[in-house]
Amino acid sequence: MGKRKRIAAERIKEARKNVSFAKLRNVPSSPRKMRLVADMVRGVEVNKALGLLHFSTKHASADIEKLLRSAIANWEQKNGRKAEAGELYIETITVDPAPMLKRLRPAPQGRGYRIRKRSNHLTLVVNTINKQDA
């Protein structure tokens, strides 16, 4: 690795030390369906978001709830203490497309219709609420 690349990698590593996040990769649901739930909890306080996700009827909400609990645990591990009520919020949540499984379905007159089984990657970042700024 060259010097410039190493310096950039160390800078990224230092920036990540202050950020608590969790990733969920290759979730077998379409990104469009997952974004509906992600938009519902983006920027919301963590305990309220857990309540929204737990009682949501969307299938994707279970995956995001599990990821949010993981991000909270990561924050607690980094800071060495339990998160208090009203302390954390969801800073960013991104849903990116993952590789598609492409299948063919038999169709009339010797044709084949394409089926695209979509999947997605989720990244969730939690941060503390600054009471002084508000």
Key features?
134 residues; alpha+beta; Ribosomal Protein L22, Chain A; two-stranded antiparallel sheet; 4 helices; 5 strands; flat
**% residues in beta strands:** 25-35%
**What would you give as the CATH superfamily of the domain at 20-95 and 122-128?**
Ribosomal protein L22/L17
CATH fold-level name of the domain at 20-95 and 122-128 = Ribosomal Protein L22, Chain A
Numbering strands along the chain, what is their spatial order in the largest sheet?
1-5-2
The CATH class assignment of the domain at 20-95 and 122-128 is: Alpha Beta
- The Rg value, from CA coordinates, equals 19 Å
The number of helices is 4
Give the rounded overall mean pLDDT. 93
State the end-to-end distance.
Answer: 44 Å
Structural class per helix/strand content? alpha+beta
Number of strands: 5
Order of secondary-structure elements? HEHHHEEEE
Helix content: 40-55%
The low-pLDDT segments are none
Can you summarize the main beta sheet?
3 strands, antiparallel
Corresponding CATH architecture of the domain at 20-95 and 122-128: Alpha-Beta Complex
Overall geometry comes to flat
